[in-house]
Design brief:
Strand content: 5-15%
Radius of gyration: 29 Å
Largest sheet: 5 strands, mixed
Bound molecules: adenosine-5'-diphosphate, magnesium ion
Number of domains: 3
Structural class: alpha+beta
C-alpha cells in the first residue's frame, strides 16, 4: 500500500500541475472555439503530462505499466477536441512502444480506447449540465472495457491493486473535471469584471464631456434650421438636411453614451416580457421589410420579469436591429422564448441567418465603439449588455460566419400573474 501511494501522488500532482499550467498559458474559456495554436499547445502540454506519468508508473506488475496517462488523454480530448487528444495519444502510443515488454499491445490498446471513448462522448459531455455525473458514466464505461481487456489478456489479477488503481483513476478524473469547470467560472467572472471596469471608465469620461458638447450642439442645430428656412442660398438649402442628419447622429451617440454612464432613474416594475418583444417586433417590422427580412416571433407568453420596461425594450430592439442589419439580401430573424422552470429563468433567443461573426468579432462585441459598419456607432451591444446585466440576466452570442448568429438573453423569471 505505502509503495503505491508515492507514485500515485506523483501521477496526480503531475496531472493537476499541467491543468493549472494550461490555464496559465491560455485561460480556459467556454465561449470561444479554440484556435489552432491553442489546440497545439494544449495537445503538447497534455502529452508532456502523460509522458511524465508514464515515467513514474504506479505499479509494474510483471511487465505491465499502470499509470494515469489515460486521464490526460481523456481530459484533453473531452475539453479540447480530437486534435489535441490525438497529439497526446500519439506520444503515449510511441512511448509505450519504446518502453516495450510483453504487454505493448494491451498498453497501446487501452490508451487508444480511452481516446475513442472520450471522443465519442465529447458532445454529450460538453452539452451536459451535470458534468460530474456524465464524467462518472464515461469513466465507468471505460473501466468496464478496460477491465474486460485486462481479464482476457493479462493472466494474473491482483484485486487489491486494481481497486486502488481504479479508485485513484476515478477520483483524479472527476477532480480534474471539477477544477476545470471552476476555472471556467472564475475566468468568466474575471472577464466580466474587466468589462464592467471598462464600462465604468468610459462612463466617467463620457459624463464629463457629453453635456458640454450637447448644449452647443443644440444651438448649432437650431440655427441651421432657422437659417435654412429663411435663406435664399441654394447650397445651404441643399445641404442643410445632411447637416441636420449628421447632427442628430452625433446627438444620438451622445445619448447612448450617457445611457451607459449615468445611473439613470430606473423604474423597476413587473414587465411583461412577451409584450415587450411583441412591441419591438411591431416597431422593427417596417425596417425589416425594407431590408427584405421577415421577423418570426413565436409568442409562448406570458412571462414576467423584473426591470425597467423602456430599457428592456431598448435592449431587445438593439439586438433585433443588429440581426436585421447582418442579413445581406433577404432572410429571417427568429425570436423564441424558452422558460426554464427548474432555474426559474426565461431565455430569449434572437437568431438570424445573416453573415455571422468571426471569433475576433465575437471577442470584441460589446466593447465601446467596436463596429464593422460604416454608419455604426458600436454602442448598441454595449448598452444592451449593460441593461441585461442590470436586470441580473446574462447575454451570450453564438455565431458562425456565413450561417448566422444567435443571441441568447437569459432573465430571471417572476412568478407569472
Ligand atoms: P453597431 O450595430 O453600431 O455596429 P453594435 O454594438 O450593435 O454596434 O454591434 C457591434 C458589431 O457586432 C457590429 O458592427 C457587427 O459587426 C457585430 N454584430 C452584432 N450583431 C450581429 C449579428 N446579429 N450578426 C453579425 N454581426 C453582428
Ligand atoms: Mg447595433
Amino acid at each position: 500500500m505505502v509503495t503505491l501511494i508515492k507514485p500515485l501522488l506523483v501521477n496526480i500532482t503531475i496531472l493537476f500541475s499541467f491543468t493549472f499550467n494550461g490555464n496559465l498559458f491560455f485561460p480556459f474559456q467556454t465561449k470561444q472555439p479554440l484556435t489552432l495554436k491553442q489546440k497545439l499547445i494544449y495537445g503538447f502540454l497534455g502529452s508532456f503530462g502523460a509522458l511524465l506519468c508514464m515515467f513514474y508508473p504506479i505499479e509494474t506488475l510483471g511487465e505491465t505499466h499502470f499509470d494515469l496517462r489515460m486521464v490526460a488523454i481523456m481530459i484533453v480530448t473531452l475539453y479540447a477536441g480530437w486534435l489535441p487528444g490525438s497529439i497526446v495519444l500519439l506520444s503515449v502510443v510511441i512511448t509505450r512502444y519504446l518502453i516495450g515488454g510483453q504487454f505493448i499491445l494491451i498498453g497501446i490498446l487501452v490508451s487508444i480506447l480511452s481516446f475513442l471513448i472520450a471522443f465519442a462522448f465529447r458532445r454529450i459531455f460538453l452539452n451536459s449540465r451535470h458534468k460530474i455525473i456524465t464524467g462518472t458514466l464515461i469513466a465507468f464505461l471505460y473501466f468496464y472495457l478496460y477491465i474486460s481487456i485486462l481479464a482476457s489478456a493479462v493472466i494474473f489479477l491482483d484485486t487489491f491493486f486494481y481497486m486502488v488503481y481504479f479508485a485513484a483513476f476515478y477520483i483524479t478524473f472527476i477532480a480534474l473535471i471539477f477544477v476545470i469547470e471552476n476555472l471556467f467560472r472564475i475566468n468568466k467572472q474575471i472577464n466580466e469584471m474587466m468589462y464592467m471596469d471598462k464600462l465604468t471608465m468610459i462612463g466617467q469620461l463620457a459624463a464629463s464631456i457629453a453635456h458640454e458638447i450637447r448644449n452647443p450642439l443644440s444651438t448649432v442645430r437650431g440655427f441651421i434650421q432657422f437659417l435654412s428656412q429663411d435663406s435664399s442660398d441654394e447650397n445651404l438649402k441643399k445641404f442643410s438636411p445632411l447637416i441636420l442628419e449628421e447632427l442628430d447622429r452625433t446627438n444620438s451617440i451622445i445619448t447612448n453614451y450617457l445611457k451607459v454612464s449615468k445611473p439613470e432613474q430606473v423604474q423597476l416594475s413587473n414587465v411583461p416580457l412577451h409584450e415587450v418583444i411583441q412591441d419591438c417586433v411591431v416597431l422593427m417590422r417596417p425596417f425589416a421589410s425594407y431590408s427584405n427580412v421577415v421577423i418570426d416571433y413565436d409568442d409562448k407568453g406570458p412571462f414576467y420579469v423584473q426591470g425597467d420596461e423602456q430599457h428592456l425594450k431598448q435592449a431587445v430592439m438593439n439586438v433585433i436591429k443588429n440581426a436585421i442589419e447582418s442579413i445581406p439580401e433577404q432572410g429571417v430573424v427568429r425570436i423564441l422564448t424558452l422558460p426554464d422552470y427548474f432555474k426559474n429563468t426565461v431565455e430569449v433567443s434572437i437568431e438570424d441567418n445573416g453573415r455571422g461573426m468571426t471569433s475576433e468579432q465575437l471577442r470584441n462585441i460589446g466593447l465601446p465603439f467596436y463596429t464593422t459598419k460604416t454608419k455604426g456607432t458600436g454602442l448598441g451591444s454595449m448598452v444592451t449588455n449593460k441593461i441585461i446585466r442590470e436586470m441580473e440576466g446574462s447575454i451570450e452570442y453564438e455565431s458562425t460566419v456565413g450561417k448566422g448568429t444567435a443571441v441568447k438573453i437569459v432573465l430571471p423569471l417572476l412568478k407569472s400573474e
